[in-house]
């Protein structure tokens, strides 16, 4: 007989699971504090203006090699996008180098075809005076540059090439560069009462005497109206279209 059939054994019933305890009211939980707003980003610093640098390659010629042998580190080749021979000379060697270019038989630069300048406000040296030298006999040329600080004088080239006289006066008018030793450094292109130097980069577009110029029918550009504000609108439209 199996155990299930034995008499007198009580029947076992599964115990009922205890009833869950009644839940009381849940305590209120305080909301988490709002996260602090991130600090406003600092305004970006304005980009540093890029210095002007020439493009192209340094061109070597018998004349530049002669100068390097004579003046060493005082003369440096300058890149040229047009395949021209260009050198930069230290200011204290400028007059000596220009004299050498004219008197040395292998250079023979007997003609100063042009003298001008350039203004680079972002560079350490703000100005460059530029000499375009040419040999009438050998038919070769060289461009010589000298870098100057704002307000730094440049030695005159008039004793070497008399044609530098008026050209240095023009550069003085347009850029305000003083040529030390010039025999007669006075205005040549502008009226004596003119304020400023028009080819410097900071010179105002219309010039400080724009109103007076526009009032003169013989000096005012033909396409500009008499009214200064109307003229400036034309200028601004031209800027946007360019």
How would you summarize the topology of this molecule?
Elements: E1 57-58, H1 62-71, E2 75-77, E3 79-80, E4 86-89, H2 94-103, E5 111-119, E6 127-134, E7 141-148, E8 154-155, H3 164-175, E9 179-180, H4 210-214, H5 228-241
Parallel strand pairs: 4-7, 8-9
Antiparallel strand pairs: 1-3, 2-4, 5-6, 6-7
Strand content: 15-25%
The whole-number mean of residue pLDDT values reads: 84
Instruction: State the name of the first-level CATH class of the largest domain.
Output: Alpha Beta
- What string gives the helices and strands in order? EHEEEHEEEEHEHH
Number of domains: 2
The second-level CATH architecture of the largest domain is: 2-Layer Sandwich
Radius of gyration: 41 Å
List unreliable stretches of 5+ residues.
Answer: none
Return the structural class: alpha/beta
Strand order of the largest sheet: 2-4-7-6-5
What is the global morphology?
elongated
Name given to the CATH homologous superfamily of the largest domain: NADH:ubiquinone oxidoreductase Nqo5 subunit
Largest sheet: 5 strands, mixed
For this structure, the CATH topology of the largest domain is Beta Polymerase, domain 2
Q: Helix count?
A: 5
Number of strands: 9
Distance between the first and last residues' Cα: 115 Å
Name the helicity range. Answer: 10-25%
């Amino acid at each position: 007989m199996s155990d299930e059939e034995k008499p007198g054994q009580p029947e076992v019933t599964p115990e009922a699971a205890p009833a869950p305890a009644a839940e009381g009211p849940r305590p209120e939980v305080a909301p988490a504090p709002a996260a602090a707003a991130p600090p406003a980003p600092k305004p970006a610093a304005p980009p540093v203006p890029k210095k002007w640098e020439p493009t192209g390659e340094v061109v070597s010629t018998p004349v530049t090699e002669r100068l390097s042998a004579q003046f060493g580190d005082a003369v440096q080749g300058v890149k040229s996008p047009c395949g021209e021979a260009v050198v930069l000379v230290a200011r204290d060697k400028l007059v000596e180098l220009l004299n050498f270019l004219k008197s040395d038989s292998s250079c023979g630069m007997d003609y100063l075809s042009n003298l001008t300048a350039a203004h680079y406000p972002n560079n350490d040296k703000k100005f460059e005076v530029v000499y375009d030298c040419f040999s009438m006999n050998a038919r070769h040329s060289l461009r010589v540059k000298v870098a100057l600080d704002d307000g730094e004088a440049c030695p005159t080239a008039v004793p070497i090439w008399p044609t530098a006289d008026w050209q240095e006066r023009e550069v003085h008018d347009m850029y305000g560069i003083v040529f030390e030793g010039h025999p007669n450094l006075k205005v040549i292109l502008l009226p004596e009462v003119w304020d400023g130097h028009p080819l410097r980069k900071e010179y105002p577009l219309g010039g400080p005497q724009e109103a007076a110029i526009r009032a003169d029918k013989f000096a005012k550009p033909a396409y500009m109206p008499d009214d200064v504000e109307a003229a400036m609108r034309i200028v601004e439209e031209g800027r946007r279209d360019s």
